[in-house]
Every structure is written in C-alpha cells, then in structure tokens.
Amino acid sequence: MKAWTAVALLGGAAFALTFLPARKKAAAPSSSAIANTAKNKRVRVGLVFDVGGRGDKSFNDSAYEGVARAERELGADVSYLEPSGSEDREAALRLFAASKMDLVIGVGFIFSSDVDAVARAYPSVHFACVDYASFGTPIPPNVAGLDFREEEGSFLVGAVAGLVSKSHHVGFVGGMTIPLIRKFEAGFVAGVKAVCDACEVHSAYVGATPDAFKDPAKGKTLAISEIASGADVIFHAAGATGHGVFEGARDAHAWAIGVDSDQHDDMPGTVLTSMVKRVDVAVFDTIVDAQKGVFSPGIHEFGLREGGVDYVHDGDHGAAIPADVKARVEELRAKVIAGEILVPSK
C-alpha cells in the first residue's frame, strides 16, 4: 500500500501531512508484539520532524525508523508532519494533539518549549521529545524527555579517530553552537586524547541557528579547511550538513565519521564508521509503553550502558577499522560502562 498526502491547516500554517499505512508486507511480528497488540488498543502516534526532515540519513531518519517499526510490529496508526519553518513546530504539535493522538513526538531539542506548552494545553495527551531540554522549568506530567549521553558514543569514535590518524590531526564539525552539540565535541576530544595525547583536534561550527543543520555547502567548506590544517579523520555532528563534510573528506581522500545513524551508505569508502544514537529504540520503546497504558513521564537517559549510543564496528560497514583498533576501543567501552572512565559532556 502507498502513503498519501493531504494539506492540513492550523492557525494559518500549512503542512504536508502524510499518513503512513502499511507500505509493504512486513516480517511477522514477534510473539510478544502479537500479545501486546491483542491486549491493547491500536495506538495512534504523531511524529513531528526536526530541521532537515525525513531523508537526512541521520537524526530524523532514525526517529522515523522507530515509528515505522511500531507500525510493523505493533500495528500502530502512525502519521508525521514536516514543518515548513521553525514557527510551525508548535502548530504541528497542536494539530496532532487536537486530533487526540495517543502519543505526540517532537524530534529535537528545539521542540522542548513547544512540547511543554502544548502538553499543558492538552493534559490528556501523552508527549515525548527527543533530546528534551527543560530550560529550568519543570517537565509537564504528560511529557517524556528522551535524552542521550552522546558524549559516550562520541568518545568511542574519538578513540577510533585517534588510533587511525596518521597525521595526528583530526577534525570535528558541529552544526549549531548549542550545549547538545558541544557534548559530541567534548566526548570526541576526550576519546582522541585517551589514545593519542599528541593528536590535535580542529573544531568548527556551522552557525548559531537551526539552519546550521542543513547547510552541506558550509559543512564542506569547514571540512576542507580542517583537512588543510592536517586533519585526516573528521567527525561531524551536523545533521544534513554532514553530507558536505563527507564530500570534502572524499575529495581529499580523508576519512569521515558519521553521526546518529549508520551513514556508511551515504558515501562508501569515505565513511570510516558512525556514532550511532539509537533514537529509533527510544521512540519505539516509548510507543510500546503508550500502547500498554504504562506511559512513563519524566527524563529517560540512554547511554552505552543502556544501548542508547554506540559506534558502527561490525560487518562490512565497520570493515575499514583495523582489528587492533576495535579491540582497544572495546576496552575503553568496558571502562566507561563500569564507571572507570567518566566522559566529559562539555
């Protein structure tokens, strides 16, 4: 079956509203999923994408995988919205809430205040926000904040970069200059220094607005600049801007490290590995709870211990990482999980 679109209007804002019925024959659900579906009602879920939208091969696509899995395995009734601009985020959330969705999900920290406002207006609707930030205000009782210890996954790919680099110069390209992206940089730098104290890390950010996550041209320019300074491995935490980082690395025959999702297929032969942030798992688990009627509000944090972050090292997509590098990184992983290494977040 195919997806279809319609135009939805709310408060003068226009959106492309896409409903997602089953797109193709899915694998048979697990016995536990069948039991849950039989026991609980069909949950209705609305997802509002972050800047860059679906197709970014990163953060948004990972969230989409979570709702798509819920559709396949739980029979969830899923729809999504891609706001045309930042001013439309709250309107998109309100549209879903007014439709009496069981769960409304905002993808990205910039949704935090909008989620709070709409959640207070619709106390009977459950909300979740990926990378939720409280900004000093109490989280509403019907909101689940899905946060990650990005610095821990970044620490692992930092170690990979430090061990693989031949020039002892590596690079980091961040999107928007915010504390969240600083966590990626801090973890990456700590990982590099844990294995290569002599290595120098060159860091740069694209800008101070959300548009920094969708500027591949600027990402390529920054990557080229860092490569000119000697970097032969570059890690990006910049959403769709990272495609430009990959292009710069490819043209200079340097390595690049992806973020959020496994980005190997975006540029095979250039993407050494990716820091994986399991937004899909967090989203799926939240939908399961909503369907069971055991929605849990408050902050939920996912790190290495919880399987919420990782790096790509198995199979063909991790084949370019030498075996001895993988072994050293696994030692570091164990120490982080055990609490022997505390990875900085800023």
Describe the fold and architecture.
By secondary structure, the protein is of the alpha/beta class. It folds into 2 domains: 4-148 and 279-302, Rossmann fold (3-Layer(aba) Sandwich), CATH 3.40.50.2300; 150-277 and 313-338, Rossmann fold. 38% of the residues lie in helices and 24% in strands. It has helices at 31-39, 59-74, 89-98, 112-121, 150-164, 179-195, 216-228, 242-251, 279-292, 323-338; strands spanning 4-10, 13-20, 44-48, 77-82, 103-107, 126-130, 143-148, 169-176, 200-207, 233-237, 255-260, 271-277, 298-302, 309-311. An 8-stranded mixed sheet has the order 1-2-4-3-5-6-7-13, with helices on both faces. Helix 2 links the parallel strand 3 and strand 4 (77-82). The longest helix has 17 residues, at 179-195. Mean pLDDT is 88; it is low at 1-38.
What attributes does this structure have?
Rossmann fold, disordered N terminus, 346 residues, eight-stranded mixed beta sheet, alpha/beta
Write down the overall geometry. Answer: globular
Helix content: 25-40%
> Beta-sheet strand percentage?
15-25%
The separation of the N and C termini measures: 46 Å
Could you give the order of strands across the largest sheet?
A: 1-2-4-3-5-6-7-13
pLDDT averaged over residues: 88
CATH topology of the largest domain: Rossmann fold
Number of structural domains: 2
- The ordered H/E elements are EEHEHEHEHEEHEHEHEHEEHEEH
